[in-house]
């Protein structure tokens, strides 16, 4: 076979996820290319190797490939003037270098630099015969950038980029190598983004289309990845059997190709279905596997999520110090991550409040509370049979201990719930606002209400009821609240009320862009509410904590509204 034929074969191997064979083939071609003195073919080898290294997270290799491409082009630039063929080669591989640079910046979380590299790629001139390749490179670069933004919980920034990707995808059934490859990459990425942000109706057709095209080409890993995304969608819809079925089909292929991130996600969601069926030991084992692979990859945000999730297991056993330590480790990971958000910290505080609440319920004689010496079988039986009853006598020592712990839980859970719920006052889109209120705010507010009720703090419970009943306010005054930020496009995440799910789309709102200026219907927070003429506005202490910890203003700066008239 000719060198060009082998280069085409290497690309097909890479697309079929056999990067090792593709790499060996490309490296084996270099002596013949050097002997033929074909710089264009050497550039193609460097470009393809760069893509392979990018997929396999060998970022030093990507850097080296970019350097080789640019050094070669710089050498030709110094030898001007150029023949048309040389000029075409230089333009083509300048684009390839821009693509690799965009992907590398995205992988390292340098999102602004990645966007600059994509812009350079879009505007880079090139020969007309490479238009299809140019379209593919632009689309693929945007897929990588949008995926990286979602990995950092910046879904609001990823959304417009996904719109650009979808605009470049050819969904026709014609057999088109580069076009088909882009459709599969975009379908998997965009489908996963839609699942993360609750757009399940949009996710399904893209995932099925990508899966069918991948299957037609024999790209079994890509087919398995579409199954994994569909499994996660099944979990969002409460279809636990669908989760297990699709993961059982996808996992052997994903494991075969050693995709650690997707392997972790398989174990992560398999753990949820085990937890839902009260199989706590199996759930913990699943999450242990997920954590190990994410540690190998060094993904701080995913590690903080799995640690937060794993903290539920010691809570069930009554090992509260162990649960607190896991939450502390998750906090340390966020502290070391430059793109962490207040919303992630609010979730940590809420979970820490859950630990205090569970400890208090144990003192109250909760029938589902675990003992330190329980076996897995015993704790699972308690978890499954619990009726949610307590038996501590009012005024007893255990009761007093529980009340003190519930007060501490309220100090954590109420401000976090108020901060997260305040987001819905700033979401313009009505459907997104309703979904945020039902699926994100509601579980955290439910925890705040539960702690207040169990603490027997009737005043706090009444204030929470008043706050929740009042909701938000609309204003038709063009000058009112001009400095109030309005989230331009919040994406809601599906959060189950019974179990804590990953907050994959929470921080998009925390970091979202804002749109100022007057509006005929301006959604915003209420002024402070005053229930008693002789008392200050409600929830003042907890609102101050929400401002101090998370920078969230729960109410506007207007005079208090009396609620008794």
TrEMBL record:
InterPro entries: TPR-like_helical_dom_sf. This is Tetratricopeptide repeat family protein.
């Amino acid at each position: 076979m000719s060198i060009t034929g082998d280069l085409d074969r290497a690309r097909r191997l890479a697309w079929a996820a056999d990067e090792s064979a593709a790499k060996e083939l490309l490296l084996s071609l270099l002596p013949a290319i050097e002997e033929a003195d074909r710089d264009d073919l050497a550039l193609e080898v460097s470009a393809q190797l760069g893509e392979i290294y990018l997929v396999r997270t060998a970022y030093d290799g990507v850097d080296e490939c970019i350097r080789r491409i640019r050094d070669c082009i710089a050498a030709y630039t110094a030898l001007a003037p150029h023949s048309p063929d040389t000029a075409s080669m230089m333009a083509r591989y300048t684009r390839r270098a821009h693509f690799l640079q965009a992907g590398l910046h995205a992988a390292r979380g340098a999102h602004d630099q990645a966007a600059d590299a994509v812009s350079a790629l879009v505007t880079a001139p090139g020969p007309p015969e490479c238009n299809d390749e140019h379209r593919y490179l632009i689309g693929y670069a945007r897929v990588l950038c949008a995926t990286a933004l979602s990995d950092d919980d910046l879904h609001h920034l990823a959304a417009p980029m996904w719109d650009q990707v979808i605009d470049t995808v050819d969904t026709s059934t014609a057999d088109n190598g580069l076009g088909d490859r882009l459709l599969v990459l975009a379908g998997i990425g965009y489908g996963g983004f839609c699942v993360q942000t609750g757009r399940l109706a949009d996710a399904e057709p893209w995932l099925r289309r990508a899966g069918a095209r991948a299957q037609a080409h024999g790209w079994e890993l890509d087919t398995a990845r579409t199954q994994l995304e569909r499994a996660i969608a099944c979990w969002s819809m409460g279809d636990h059997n669908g989760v297990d079925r699709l993961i059982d089909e996808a996992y052997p292929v994903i494991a075969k190709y050693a995709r650690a991130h997707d392997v972790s996600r398989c174990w992560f969601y398999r753990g949820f279905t085990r937890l839902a069926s009260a199989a706590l030991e199996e759930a913990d084992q699943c999450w242990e596997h997920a954590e190990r692979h994410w540690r190998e990859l060094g993904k701080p945000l995913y590690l903080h999520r799995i640690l937060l999730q794993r903290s539920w297991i010691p809570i069930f056993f009554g090992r509260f110090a162990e649960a607190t330590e896991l939450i502390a480790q998750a906090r340390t990971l966020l502290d070391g991550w430059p793109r962490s958000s207040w919303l992630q910290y609010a979730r940590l505080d809420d979970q820490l409040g859950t630990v205090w609440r569970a400890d208090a319920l144990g003192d109250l004689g909760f029938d589902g509370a675990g003992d330190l010496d329980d076996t897995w079988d015993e704790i699972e039986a308690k978890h499954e049979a619990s009726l949610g009853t307590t038996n501590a006598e009012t005024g007893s020592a255990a009761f007093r201990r529980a009340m003190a712990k519930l007060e501490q839980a309220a100090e954590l859970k109420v401000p976090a719930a108020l901060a997260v719920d305040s987001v819905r006052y700033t979401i313009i889109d009505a459907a997104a606002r309703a979904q945020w209120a039902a699926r994100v705010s509601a579980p955290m507010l439910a925890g705040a209400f539960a702690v207040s009720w169990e603490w027997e703090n009737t005043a706090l419970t009444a204030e929470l009821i008043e706050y929740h009943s009042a909701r938000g306010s609309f204003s038709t005054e063009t000058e009112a609240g001009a400095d109030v930020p309005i989230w331009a496009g919040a994406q809601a995440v599906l959060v189950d009320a019974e179990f804590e799910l990953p907050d994959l789309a929470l921080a998009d709102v925390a970091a979202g862009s804002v749109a100022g200026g007057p509006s005929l219907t301006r959604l915003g927070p209420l002024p402070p509410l005053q229930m008693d003429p002789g008392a200050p506005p409600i929830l003042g202490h907890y609102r101050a904590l929400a401002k101090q910890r998370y920078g969230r203003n729960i109410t506007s700066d207007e005079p208090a509204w009396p609620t008794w008239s």
